[in-house]
Amino acid sequence: MGNNNLSRTILALLAWTIAWIGMVGLESRLDLANLSMLLVLASALSALWLPSWASLVASAVAVMAFNWFFVPPRLTFSVDLRQNALLLVALLLVNWIIAGLVIRQRRLVEAARTVAAREARLRQWGDILRDAGDPAAHAAALRTALQEATGSAVAVSVLRALDSQADDTAALQVGEPNDEQRAGLALCVRDGRAMGAGSGRYDGLPDAYLPLRGRGVTMGAALITGLARHPQGHELRPHLQALCDQMGSALHRSLMSAQEQQARDQAQLQATRNALLAAISHDYRTPLASIMSAASALQEQGERMDNAQRQLLAAGIVEESERLAQLTDNTLQLARLDTPAVQLRCDWESAEEIVGAVLRRARRRPEGARVRARVEPDLPLLWCDATLVSQLLDNLLDNGLKYSPADTPVELHAARDGERAVLAVSDQGPGIAPAWREKVFEVFQRGEMGAAGPHADAGRGAGVGLAVCRAIARAHQGELLLRPGAEGGCRFECRLPLHGESPPPQSAPTPQETQP
Amino acid sequence: MSHRVLLVEDDRVLRSALREALTIEGYALQTAASLTDARAQLQHAPHGETIDLVLLDLGLPDGEGQALLAELRRSSNMPVIVISARESEGQKIRLLDEGADDYLVKPFGIGELLARMRVALRRRGRTSEPALLHYRHGPLAVDLKARRVRLADADVRLTPTEYALLARLVRQAGQVVTHRHLLADVWGGEHTEQTHYLRLYMGQLRAKLEADSADPQHLLTEPGVGYRLAEPDPTD
């Protein structure tokens, strides 16, 4: 600003200087009336650059100096000829009129420029608010915008939540207000009305406090220090309030939509949870019913039964209890894998060992003899959580045994496919209808009896089983796929990434000599 | 002489079911429903009888069963089998490393419990059987004294490391030995994280001793925990 004023003054002085040099130089060749035209020109030019009072004074001084130097009798202020007097008066008036017009034009241009600048700022501010998602970013940006608009120090206080209070813990503060100003900000938020300089409330304060108003709520407040002393304080106020209100409604909108989103998420979560609970309790009830009826029969009619009948009931209780235990494991595992930062206990594991352990467990089941296993010798160690991968294979085998005829084998095959290990379980059952090939992995999707189900002869499904398997594969950055088997039936493929080669075997040192 | 077993379990139904089942098998049963109760019974065994084995639940009304395990291990090597509903492999390993003889996750079958108890009691030399120097399971026979391994009556040549690993498992036949214990005892304390050594040497052992490596009968894997050599055939 200072530089600008200086250069304008220099330009005006230059105009006057050139005009006077011209007048002195041309005096002998031109008459007085023509000479005075240079004066009119210089006066008009200087009005473009000088402040209004300065250009009026400059015009008056110039006319007097013209009278002194050029109008006869020279070097006096007295005017001898009537026409010269008219010339001087006209000269002065014309100078003033021109200066006045030019100044007025300049003011209009300046006002238009200010309005345009404010509009641009509001627009820009709107863009910032639209793009920023975080109140902290909003507050710092508002502070910058208000500082640009006023040139004063600004502090902004923003509420973090719709129902919080404007004390320090609940509000986000930007800027360095002192304690008194902090209290002022809090009061302004609570009342939701402007206060301080020029607002009609606490008018004596040097600073102004403007609320950030949303729809029906106040989302915070801004402090503009020294607005009382600001030259354009009065005109600036509506503009500043507009900036603040834009911020207020943006904050309000963002908090409202966050709240809505949260409510929607909550409702969705609740719905999922309810579906899960309903499905779990259904799945638990079936084995529980078998256990209950067998156990109560033993209790009430045991004495009248023969040994074989009692054995049959007891065996049913054991089998159904095992089913319940497996269901519980699966449900728990699914819940665990569903949490965001699930920790796997990974180690270098041998596929052969995992398959061996799974096979041993499967053999204990009544139908376990149908399981065949094959591990390709070129399979390197896997970096995985052995417990989880065993659980995955347990479930796949369980599924295969359940959905294939009693005289067909269920095969477990571990092989390498490029940079992946493939653990596959295939059965020779009826297979799964194409429409169900993705759905079987969804929690508690089970084939119902009949043609609509995934298995043409679907019996009781293990609700969470396949969902857990897929969750386990994905927790290992792997995938679980269902492919139609070569000879009918299903082939579930768990593909796990091989994390490079396992550590080199030769690194194993010679063990300590141990005496058995 | 029947073995005296202290069952520490706070669930009434499970407690009475186990008491019945174990009594039928000829064990003398004492039960405790809390840590305090268990401590009192361990200190003042009735009729001057000493307790031979403890079945320990973890979550008890007045504290963690783990505390009792630590106290017992400070003063004795009495067999302790943990029975717990908490299925966390990390905890299983910790308890085994801290001296539990075995670990059963609820629910379990009575047959499995009896097998584990038999193994734990034999290992502590509480039975008439001598300390295990000869291991025999199906076609596999290991003679620790002669450092000799035979499969279907033919000698098997093992490298020193393979033999050390097998011998370590034989000394605790029928029980889980954690990765950490195996690595510390065979390779030395500084190698307890190098589980891939184990994978390699167990693979080699299986190739020499098992008919089908993918379906082992002797060298069994407890995924995520350790290895178990199958319970030896009963000796006559």
TrEMBL record, chain B:
Domain Response regulatory: 4-121
GO biological process annotation, one example: regulation of DNA-templated transcription
4-aspartylphosphate found at: 57
PROSITE patterns: OMPR_PHOB (PS51755), RESPONSE_REGULATORY (PS50110)
Ranges where the OmpR/PhoB-type domain occurs: 130-231
GO terms assigned for molecular function: phosphorelay response regulator activity; transcription cis-regulatory region binding
Stored PANTHER family: KDP OPERON TRANSCRIPTIONAL REGULATORY PROTEIN KDPE, REGULATOR OF RPOS
Name the UniProt record assigns to this protein: Two-component system, OmpR family, KDP operon response regulator KdpE
